[in-house]
Write a structure and sequence with these properties.
Blueprint lengths: L1 H8 L19 H9 L6 E3 L7 H6 L6 H14 L4 E8 L6 H14 L3 E6 L7 H5 L6 H23 L6 E10 L2 E5 L5 E5 L10 E10 L2 E6 L1
Parallel strand pairs: 1-2, 2-3, 6-8
Antiparallel strand pairs: 4-5, 4-7, 5-6, 7-8
Helix pairs in contact: 1-2, 5-7
Length: 223
């Protein structure tokens, strides 16, 4: 996979390369090295954790521990300057205790994600979990845990992005929506800015000054 990334990133032209949700067990030192080496590879990684508890991960049949996952995030941060991390995580998986949930909270606080796709566990018929485990975490507990992780995510996003205010960011423009343009920077963060509606901007890179940060997006000015 690292060789493939290097070959794609070596192609001529002005573009970015993104890839989504690599399995932690497959994220090797070679991938980290290549991502740091090639500017066309976006410095954003969605690394699914699913849980911060080794016991829950074992019940999920995830072949890594909390400690292994955290070491990997440390290695990524050390090896890829200015990297942005996001994750997928589930609350209320079968049998998840309050202590096990607290391990997910502390994992999110430690890593400091810019985005997380947080799901409340629900039974999927035909899965091993549906056959082997009881869905015994109440809806109220799942909702409370979801809200707790969302609050952590918002806090870490704002802390990570606040220092970038006033700086110029390179943005790939995606569309015009209502009265403004929308694009994303290499960290996959949405950037809103104003420009004439008939401007031919979709698919182009633009320089945007970041003037305001809100939960999970910036508002900026085209420069």
């Amino acid at each position: 996979f690292a060789d493939l990334l290097a070959q794609v990133a070596s192609l001529p032209g002005e573009f970015w390369v993104r890839f989504h949700a690599p399995h932690p067990k497959d994220f090797t030192a070679d991938v980290i090295r290549v991502m740091a080496q090639y500017p066309k590879l976006c410095k954003q990684i969605n690394l699914p954790a699913q849980s911060g508890s080794s016991k829950v991960l074992r019940r999920m049949n995830r072949p890594y521990t909390r400690e292994q996952y955290l070491k990997l995030t440390d290695d990524i941060k050390a090896g890829i300057p200015n990297v942005s991390l996001s994750t997928d995580i589930i609350v209320g998986f079968c049998g998840e205790t309050e202590d096990e949930f607290m391990e997910s909270k502390t994992l999110m606080e430690y890593v400091g994600y810019d985005m997380a796709f947080i799901a409340q566990y629900s039974v999927r018929p035909g899965t091993v979990a549906a056959r082997r485990f009881e869905d015994n975490v109440t809806h109220a507990e799942k909702k409370q845990r979801f809200e707790a992780l969302t609050a952590i995510l918002e806090k870490t996003f704002m802390a990570n992005q606040q220092p970038r205010l006033g700086k110029i960011d390179r943005v790939l423009v995606e569309k015009y929506s209502k009265d403004h343009w929308l694009g994303r920077n290499e960290h996959q963060i949405t950037i809103e800015f104003s420009a004439p509606a008939d401007a031919q901007l979709v698919g182009t890179f633009q320089q945007i000054r970041l003037d305001k940060v809100e939960p999970f997006r910036f508002v900026g000015i085209l420069v």
